[in-house]
Amino acid sequence: MSISFDLTTHAARDALGATARASLAPKPSLIGLTRAGMGEALAGIGVPQRQIKMRVAQLWHWLYVRGVADFADMLNISKDMRALLERHFSIGRPEIVDEQISNDGTRKWLFRFPARGAGRPVEIETVYIPEEGRGTLCVSSQVGCTLTCSFCHTGTQKLVRNLTAEEILAQLMAARDRLGDFPDKNTPDGAIVPAEGRKVTNVVMMGMGEPLYNFEEVKKALLIASDGDGLSLSKRRITLSTSGVVPEIYRTGEEIGVMLAISLHAVRDDLRDMLVPINKKYPLAELIKACRAYPGLSNARRITFEYVMLKDVNDSLDDAKELVRLLRGIPAKINLIPFNPWPGTNYQCSDWEQIERFADYVNNAGYASPIRTPRGRDILAACGQLKSESERMRKTDRLALEAMMIAGHGEE
Ligand code: SF4
After folding, report:
1. Hey, where are the domains in the chain?
2. pTM (2 decimals)?
3. Which principal EC class is assigned to this enzyme (predicted)?
4. CATH class of the domain at 30-91
5. Active site (catalytic) residues
6. Which residues of 291-305 are buried (b: 16+ CB within 10 A; e: fewer)?
7. What superfamily does domain 95-395 belong to in CATH?
8. Ligand 1 touching residue 406 (CB < 6 A)
9. CA–centroid distance, residue 38 to ligand 1 (Å)
10. Is residue 243 within 6 Å of ligand 1 at its C-beta?
11. Helices 52-60 and 35-44 meet at what angle, rounded to 10?
12. pLDDT tens digits for range 243-257
């Protein structure tokens, strides 16, 4: 899917908080560690073993329930302990290079993460899409992508690196900071933002990259995001979107348990080999078998299949019929995504009437098949347009790849 924005830079950009502007410090971060990992990190700086469990619980609450980004705000931790933590660890947020707000309320942040090892700093975009009764945050898992789906602009960019669990979570936490989705730091202890009052109600791993090629870090981040004593997002409200890395689909079901979305886009192997080349390694029969085996499926827990509508490529009624046949018996929803052209692509978006005919067929066969209307298409129109516009605006300041929302990984 593609998301479009008003490119007017938010006037509040200059008023970003000092914490938000500060880069992640080179000190290791406590964000993104499992409880066990955090315990080990604390033991490593001399926190007595008998205190570890209690300290981990305290830190978990401050970091993930209250969203503090400064040890000084952890009021029930002694000054000496706070100073010790401060000396060794970071809990800061990524630098917010840019924040844009579209006319329809969609927000986009350009985050900069510091260099890791010998690499360079990287920038990625995270998008917040408010809708009636819900708000969805679209999160990236890699900078660039190793796969080369032919309709996807991200696929034309080399992989720079995987994001760490910290960086995946940082997108969520920084977005919640900016949206006022963490309790005010003066809120009395225990008074947390109730689930129904949240701005970010859903998370989709559908930004840049193939999340299942970064399985361990994505798993860590999503288990922390869904931890009931922390960020507390229901696993039913987290969707991981994959192009079809079959072995890791099984692992996702067993080890993470979030909702699944598949970038399907074609119903015949010859065509899918071309559109989503990972199909050569894991063909449709294997992919669909893994989907059928995904644990916990029901009409209330459906797999989302993303299907980008490409004129005269995959949009015939025969394709629609084959789609229905292929998915028979799988609790499924099919998101039809009008293709957003980008510079250099040979594909065109299907005609609107054809998209509707396709949708009607699938719908009449009993599958929900919403047509995704790109937001603010007049301004962003395509991933490529967003990228070139950003490059034009910030020519002298390009560091690595700019992330963009892609046509391939779709939201629930
Ligand atoms: S659709 Fe997803 S997996 Fe395919 S190239 Fe684009 S980002 Fe990579």
Report:
1. 30-91, 95-395
2. 0.86
3. transferase
4. mainly alpha
5. 125, 383
6. beebeebeeeebbbb
7. Aldolase class I (3.20.20.70)
8. yes
9. 33
10. yes
11. 120
12. 999 999 999 999 999
